[in-house]
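User: Assemble these into one structure.

Assistant: Restating your components, then the assembled model:
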Amino acid sequence: MAGFFAGEYDIIVIGAGHAGCEAALAAARKGCKVLLATLHMDSVALMPCNPSVGGTGKGHLVREIDALGGEMGKNIDATYIQSKMLNTSKGPAVHSLRAQADKKAYSQRMKKVLESEPNLFLKQLEIVEIETQGSKVTGIVSKTGGLYKAKAVILACGTYLRSRIVIGEAAYDSGPSGLSNAKYLSESLEKNGIRLQRLKTGTPARAHKRSIDFAKLEPQYGDRIITPFSFSTKEIGYKNEPCFLAYTNEATHEAIRANLHRSPLFSGFIQGVGTRYCPSIEDKVVRFAEKPRHQLFVEPEGLGTDEMYLQGLSSSLPEDVQEAFLRTIKGFENIEVMRSAYAIEYDAIDPTQLKLTLETKAISGLFCAGQINATSGYEEAAAQGIVAGINAAEHIHGKPQLTLGREAGYIGVMIDDIVTKGASDPYRIMTSRVELRLLLRQDNADIRLMPYGYKHGLVPEAAYSALLEKEEAIQAEKARLKESYVSPSEEVNRVLSSANSAALKGPATLHSLLKRPEISYADLEGIDLSRPALDLKTIQQVQLQVRYEDYIEKQKKQRDDFLKSESKLIPEGFDYSSVPNLRLEAREKLSKQRPESIGRASRIGGISPADSQMLLIALKKLESEQSI
Amino acid sequence: MSDFSDTIAAVSTPPGFGGISIVRLSGDRAYDIACRLTGKDLFAKPSHSIVYSLISYNGDVLDEALVSIMKQPKTYTREDVVEINCHGGFVCAKSVLEAAICCGARLAEPGEFTKRAFLNGRIDLAQAEAVSDIINAATEQMAMASLSQLSGKMGQAVSGVARQGLEILSHLEASIEYPEYEETSLSANELAERLSSLSLSLDDLISDFERSQVMRSSFKAVIAGKPNVGKSMLLNALASEDKAIVTDIAGTTRDVLDCYANIGGLAVRFFDTAGLRESEDPIEKIGVGKAVMAIAEADLLLFVVDGSKPLEQDDIDVWGEYGGSSAIALLNKADLGISSEAKSFFDGKNAEVIEISALTGENINSLCEAIALRAECSEAAAVGFAANERHISALREAKASLESAINCIDIGLEADLACIGLSGFLSEIGKIAGETASEDVIDAIFEKFCLGK
């Protein structure tokens, strides 16, 4: 119960992790007065798990956040200590950027950015209640009795809700990294009709640098030429702190197997459902018993600390067992553990209770973003954060909200997945979830999403017009290449043969030559006499769009088909019981989830193609009835 | 403007033998496809006109036909529609339909023309429920024709190919998702090898399916004769499976049993009847009554006698009542030697006579040929595709997707571009083997590889 009135805001964001920071910044930058409540003022934009940002699929998300006008890309560009473009030997769709972060620096810079935002008020508070009136959110109550009124509330509470840390036989109430948890908010959500689920995640141990024999490990460096995450970063400098590759061995596995009975995962002590994407080392040893070794990576936590993160070894075994198995690893013989690995259980909502805007269907003005939505990962959280922030602001301004579809970006795929199918274990973005990935590349995130960022007021005019110019230059150059013919002269064939490409027999366009996988734009310079001066990014786009044109076109056709069924909207409040021949199971599921379109309805688990057909016919009938 | 992006095709005349069979095309590419089949520029002709043309594909002339061309929107489906009026019988229509599919049309689902007509606003409101019922019935029919209907061996082969594709795709995806893990690495050569081995398995599967392709028909053959001459055993020999109960006690088959058998590529429905004789047993009497009715409705009577002995009065009576040129007389039990008296009974009776042994299978092939000949000339030979044509069509689509995956490796593009073709392959195979969602790929990745922080 509230004891006193503590202030009035447009929007309140609960939690200042990666989702909360993006949400608060987006809303404040859109002119809203924002309260950002954090449990721990020293833990803003905390990275309680891996010391890196990006990676496969996740790198795409960071680029997309940046294109929408978010902060994550800029923040990591300013605080990275090693950077690598992954999958460069593979096609352009799966190139993915990943940077090692200086965790402290990352957190501090983000805090400073928040503090510098005039409309944003950062406060240390534990929120215990959501206040609602009817089915509308009206504010929140802090543990100390303060009532904070707001027109919209964004829940970005991460893994703090009723969280419990488990290490071996020990279990205690705690947030990540030993920070205090949020004990009361779950109950308030349940009272408001929000369904919760219990999930589990974990993190590996951190060890002191001096205790690791790096001579026995393989160093792994990043790129020599750094690609920034943010489209706006011009200067990034050069840093290349190494990570190190190590391996478990039979002795490690034996030490784990001998103590499995003490693992809370196998004794049933942990009830939360863990993510498939971060299996603990004991899980790996049990499930892949035949493997003689598992890889692990030793990564620095920052420049100002000697803590090293042991990626690949997350565990909830007792500390003595952890210590014992770590010491069997080559290079870890004298390891000095600074923080033990732990599993953490926490409450999350069932994300099928959300609209694509990330607003809850039950309570108007209540939005959710990040791990509370049963996702995992900083990038997934931040991406939902910016969407929730934009939409909470548009909600109170009464303007159209931002919904990104599966055809628009990785953010769209992620939100559609969790909102449509739910997530029974923490959800991670993957490139293989993205049907149109040749269209949704990290290199063109600006072309794809900056228009949305501009429309919603987060991308400045200058950046947007620069984008339009770039886009125009790309199209003009592609058109020019299509009209530029070369004949099979000695000069032309010499250029081709030096690129190991077949000689020309008749005249051809430069466009058709550039389509050959072995030919680059630069290769054609000598035979392309009217070439305009273009910047590197434009050239990259031209080369890529031409080389993969056939495949891109194929995916564009897929996209058009996809959009057709997405554009068949189901009216709000549609009566599914009026649809003849719809199976009972389908009727129940559709009535519960109330999808926005036929396309989304068809992706709900258990909805058959025949059900979608019946729905389509019923809608068509409704439409013609209304037009009469 | 149509809501549909593909062009569908089907034989649209009802089952039965008419003077013509119509192959109907509807969709954006209907004209394109018809231009290819006729070699004529149909775009230049006025809409709602009829053009005479030879229909050919890949240099083979398939039929000569009248082609009706209709530009949208004034058509049944409100899409471009082309109707190719082929010669009657299923052979011409089938080959024209196949050629249309090879040119890019998709085999229409049952009721799909009507569905499009409705969804494109052509049919009025009152028909909505009816359309919904049609599709409901059609989807049930298709569900019946799904994998569970395939023989065990065929079904396993489809699942096997699906699994093979899923394994390749999940390995490829694992190598993309977790590039720094040693176990995920997959070289272009290895990938190319696995793809071409998959392609070979798929080719085998397609030819197996094509071999077992059966045309639906309503041709009915009734097996009749007096008791214990081996009628049920003949049915089994024809169906090559134990569909009917066979014993040597006279009067075992008291009802009419039926089954379909593939006779020369045509599904013929066989009825096994109770032995025809005077009986006091009331149940057997009912059986005999039903047999008589079945014979009356039959397109072909297979009159069975025990050919190892002279005919008995019962045989002669039955022949007298039902025999004639529409019957085939079967002298069964040829393995015991054929009695010359039995044989001579049919002399001058204008009947086709075949000596067979249902027990050893002797001359069953000649019998099948004789039945096929009658069926093909019959009015009951339906025009249309068997359920398994849908499987074949999906397999062919799967093959095209797989080829595009192989092609992008061949021309030196990066391996992951093959994912597009491989996913297409899986979704086509999924139409036969059950849903293949992208979640399957992710499950497969984490089942097979030990990954994650």
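Residues 289 and 406 of chain A are 38 Å apart (CA to CA).
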